[in-house]
Specification:
alpha/beta; Rossmann fold; Immunoglobulin-like; five-stranded mixed beta sheet; 16% strand; carbohydrate metabolism; glycosidase; Glyco_hydro_3_C
């Protein structure tokens, strides 16, 4: 970036470039010694002036305290500036944010910790009151950025809630993904929100980890593509700020998804090559193609360096090599944990200095460590140029958003869930259901007695980071509604429990009495005897797979076995010799071998959103054919971890007496029809290392049902200077085909698909042969291949 000269009075102030803290071209700080006043004629208030000049003018007027305030957030301290009914109190606010504030966290909450939140109109009124205080009663009148969680829909009252990201990934549907996140953007923006802390683009390589549900799965390419669509849904296609758009936040950078022992925040034992090619790939891809405006650092360490103190990752790589120009925010309490948990800083001041030098711009969610930056700058321990760079990045978002011209939101425009949103979520839920097995029982006909059994059959199943969705349709409710309209009958029994009732937010998690569960099993068997078919909803829930944010709030497990007496329930129902359809819910893969063996059909569902019951009914009764594909492999047991498909050639030699392969592999998923794939065809079968070609495959619906199929492209570099995975996903396209219809799908092949980090850790395409494989899963038996030859320029 070219440094710009401020043009007010006699002071010279250069706004910092987005390079590392050690840049030789650090900006001058002479103007900071004497902050300007006279805000009535301030350039920063003049909308006709270039934003760079407005930022320079504003920074030139700010005290060190006001600059640092822009790097702070307020969350729990919101309650210190509220009345007894949680309304905003300007008098109390003067003690909390006397110099302004950068971010206000979760204004949609009333009390926090999963308690009931503000209605859309109440949230707008609350946000507007805060902005009015900041604009009218602080010296420079700088508005705040309001941020909310939006993992799978805005986490607020009466908002729309779809399935967890792992389920969104299971749709393999780019356009659907973008429409989902655009829904959240519209609702968030209408309530005065400017930033959402989503999407998560961690790569989930250990299913014991409780945050698998928050990710798009195990594959870097699929994660990058789905994450990009989420960002475009939030932010739009360009730099122009349109109504209904919010700034996205990629998280968590990086290595978070394969922690030691599957324990959240544990060290990630990764080489630089694996870190960059797998875990950083989605971040790089979205920075290059999505203009994302925020990135959140991760809690974990890599090679002894916590991400919140990783200058190489956040400055050299992210900003230097990739050219990222946005803001880097801390994960909640991540800065103070440099001292309190990682022990790489002796106190909070040292933690703050190390974090901001390493590239952290904003401390979330509360002002714990960064307030010490005032003293660090005043003492000369922290170069004020580093502070200016961070402040400039935050102010740029506020100017780009137009907050200085219009900091307020129209309360009459606050949005809640609509019937159109229901339709979209219902579609997403049906496309996320992955059919793993079908012995001909599906789709179901009418005039049946259906026994709906299981701990997840009549339970709200949201997963983590959920606010208060407008409604939720359980499996039982959805099947009952369909049955009432089609002459069938539904009977119900709980059968067993995963845990006693509880909350994702709260503790403790209470195990179930085995004696009580066995009584429930006996009742379920009695009820199921009258049925023609059993729909059994089992798996996990939001208490058994969740973010472990403290030793008193855990969510990781060393086992993938289904909790409690669920396998006893499966065994008891199987003895009835009534066809059984298994539905597996929860946030991560489980060992479902017993269910798969004893059921006529099995679906992996993860979480499907507020329309769960309707989505399930649509699929089971054939209103819609299943089209979901696994975004993460399902291992046979915890002892089979890691089970990801894109392993190195030496990684799966085998186990004594055990199959080494996943029970169900990445990309797998059946339909109610069949599809035939032609041999793939290359546009050119020989290209130079800097050349391009295409690969085309014909896919035909050979059955009698219209359905969607996901055409998948995998590539293997046959011989290379460093080892390469046995297969890597490099393209996919979801298509809908009528019975007998054929479609030709073409994928581009070039540097992006063929390159990798060579022995010098530089992206390159090496001469040699590449196997290009097309089909409908990552299994070799589901793929057909063709060989591409790449030659050096010299030949």
């Amino acid at each position: 970036m070219v440094f710009r000269l401020a043009f007010l009075l006699t002071a010279l102030l250069f706004v910092g470039c987005d390079r590392s803290a050690d840049s030789d071209s650090a900006p001058s700080t002479a103007a900071a010694d004497k902050p300007r006043s006279n805000t009535e004629t301030a350039i920063y208030k003049d909308v006709s002036q270039p934003i760079d000049d407005r930022i320079a003018d504003l920074i030139g007027r700010m005290t060190t305290e006001e600059k640092v305030a822009q790097l702070l957030s307020v969350w729990s301290d919101k309650h210190r500036m509220e009345t007894d009914d949680y309304s905003f109190d300007p008098e109390k606010a003067r003690a909390v944010m006397p110099h302004g504030i950068g971010h206000v966290a979760r204004p949609g909450e009333a009390r926090g910790n999963g308690e009931p939140g503000r209605t859309p109109a109440q949230q707008v009124a609350y946000a507007n009151a805060i902005q009015r205080f900041l604009v009218e009663e602080t010296r420079l009148g700088i508005p705040a950025l309001m941020h909310e969680e939006s993992l799978h829909g805005l986490a607020a009252k009466d908002a729309t809630s779809w399935g967890q990201p792992i389920s969104v990934a299971a749709t393999w549907n780019r356009s659907l993904t973008r429409r989902l996140y655009a829904t959240a953007a519209r609702q968030a923006a209408s309530r005065g929100t400017h930033v959402v802390l989503s999407p998560v683009v961690d790569i989930a390589r250990d299913p014991r980890w409780g945050r698998v549900e928050e990710t798009f799965g195990e594959d870097p390419y699929l994660t990058a593509e789905m994450g990009l669509q989420a960002v475009l849904g939030f932010q739009g296609d360009n730099d122009k700020w349109d109504p209904g758009e919010v700034y996205a936040t990629l998280k968590h950078m990086a290595g978070h998804g394969e922690p030691e022992g599957g324990n959240n925040i544990a060290p990630a034992h990764l080489s630089e090559r694996t870190l960059r090619e797998v875990f950083l790939y989605p971040f790089r891809h979205i920075v290059l193609y999505g203009n994302v405006r925020n990135i959140m650092a991760s809690y974990n360490e890599v090679d002894g360096v916590p991400s919140h103190a990783n200058n190489w990752m956040l400055n050299d790589l992210l900003r230097g090599q990739w050219g990222y120009r946005g803001v880097v925010v801390s994960d909640y309490y991540g800065v103070e944990e440099l001292s309190t948990r990682h022990a790489v800083a002796p106190d909070l001041e040292a933690a703050a200095i190390r974090a901001i030098r390493s590239g952290i711009d904003v401390e979330l969610p509360d002002a714990k460590a960064f307030p010490y930056l005032v003293a660090a700058v005043n003492s000369g321990e922290l170069d004020e140029a580093i502070l200016h760079r961070a402040v400039e990045r935050v102010l740029r978002q506020k100017f780009d958003r137009g907050l200085f011209e219009n900091p307020y939101t129209d309360p009459n425009g606050a949005l809640a869930n609509t019937s159109a949103d229901d339709t979209l979520v219902r579609q997403a839920g049906s496309e996320a259901m992955i059919l793993l097995k079908n012995e001909g029982i599906l789709p179901l006909g009418d005039d049946l007695t259906i026994a709906v059994i299981g701990p997840n059959a009549d339970r709200e199943l949201h997963g983590g980071y959920t606010g208060e969705p407008h409604h939720f349709v359980t499996v039982r409710q959805g099947l009952e509604a369909y049955a009432a309209a089609h002459g069938s009958t539904v009977v119900y029994a709980e059968g067993t429990r995963v845990t006693e009732p509880g909350s994702w937010y709260k503790d403790p998690v209470v195990a179930v009495s085995v004696a009580d569960d066995r009584a429930r099993i006996e009742q379920a068997v009695r009820i199921a005897r009258q049925a023609d078919v059993i729909v059994l909803a089992v798996g996990g829930n939001e208490l058994t797979s969740r973010e472990a944010w403290a030793e008193s709030h855990l969510g990781d497990r060393p086992s993938l076995e289904m909790l409690g007496t669920q396998n006893e329930l499966i065994d008891a129902l199987a003895e009835l010799d009534i066809p059984m359809i298994g539905l597996v819910f929860g946030g991560r893969p489980l060992n479902i071998s017993n269910l798969a063996e004893k059921s006529a059909a099995v679906f992996q569902c993860f979480y499907l959103g507020q329309e769960t019951g309707h989505s399930v009914a649509d699929i089971l009764h054939g209103v819609v054919a299943p089209s979901g594909k696994l975004p993460i492999s399902i291992p046979r047991s915890a002892g089979h971890v890691p089970a990801y498909y894109n392993h190195k050639p030496t990684a799966r030699r085998g186990y004594l007496f055990e199959d080494v392969n996943a029970l169900y592999p990445f990309g797998y998923g059946l339909s109610y029809t069949t599809f035939a794939f032609s041999e793939p065809r290359l546009g050119d079968d020989l290209i130079p290392v800097d050349g391009n070609t295409t690969v085309t495959v014909d896919v035909t619906n050979t059955g009698r049902v219209a359905a969607k199929e996901v055409v998948q492209l995998y590539i293997r570099d046959d011989f290379s200077t460093v080892t390469r995975p046995v297969r890597e996903l490099k393209g996919f396209q979801k298509v809908r085909l009528l019975p007998g219809e054929t479609r030709s799908i073409t994928f581009e092949i070039g540097f992006e698909q063929l390159s990798f980090l060579n022995a010098d850790l530089e992206y390159a395409v090496e001469p040699g042969t590449f196997k290009l494989m097309t089909g409908n899963s990552s299994r070799l038996q589901d793929l057909k291949s063709v060989t591409l030859t790449v030659v050096s320029q010299a030949r």
